[in-house]
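Worked Example 4.2. Consider the chain below.
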Amino acid sequence: MNRYAAFLRGIGPSNPNMRNEKLRGVFEGLGFEKVGSVVSSGNVVFHSDETDTAALESRIQQALRAELGIPGGTLIRSRERLQSLVDADPFPGLTHCRETYLVVTFLREEPASVPEWPSEGRPSAVTVVGYDKAARALLSILDNRDPGTTNFMVWLEKSFGKDITTRTFLTIERTLKKLNS
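Applying the procedure from the previous section yields the following C-alpha cells:
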C-alpha cells in the first residue's frame, strides 16, 4: 500500500465545503484508506494501491470539483518523496518562526529554468535556497518583517504558473509525521 499526501490549492477553511471533514469524505468516497488531514489548509494523507500520481491528482481534483465545488489544483507527493525532502535538511540551522517562514512550493511540472531560478520581480523579502528535483519543490525563506512578502505568491505564479501550491516546511514535517504513524 502506497502512502501519499495531497496538497490542495485554494482551500479556505472558513468555507463550509472546504472543511477537513468534507475533504476527507471525498477521499474516503474514492476508496482510499487511512485518510487523515493535517492542519486546516487542504493537506490530506491517504493510502492507495495506485501508483500513477498524475492519474490520482486528476481523479481527486475531479471529485473535489464535482462534490464540493472546489476548483483549485491537487498536487500529490509520496511519503518517500517527502521523507527524502525532510532528510535533506534544506534549511540547515534555520527555524520557522513568526519573523522567518521556511516554505516549500510544490510544482506540478519540472521547470525549464532549473537550477537558475527566475529573479526578475522576486520580492526582496524572499530568498530561494534551492530546488528538490525529486519532490519538484522550490525551497524559499520569507522574511516576514519585510512588507515585500505580500508579493511572494504573485511572483511564484508569474514565474511558475498557477499549477503550484505552497506550504510551510513545518506543515511538511507534520504531514510526514502523520504519514509515518
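The first helix runs from residue 20 to 29. The first strand starts at residue 2 and ends at 8. Compare this with Example 4.1 before moving on.
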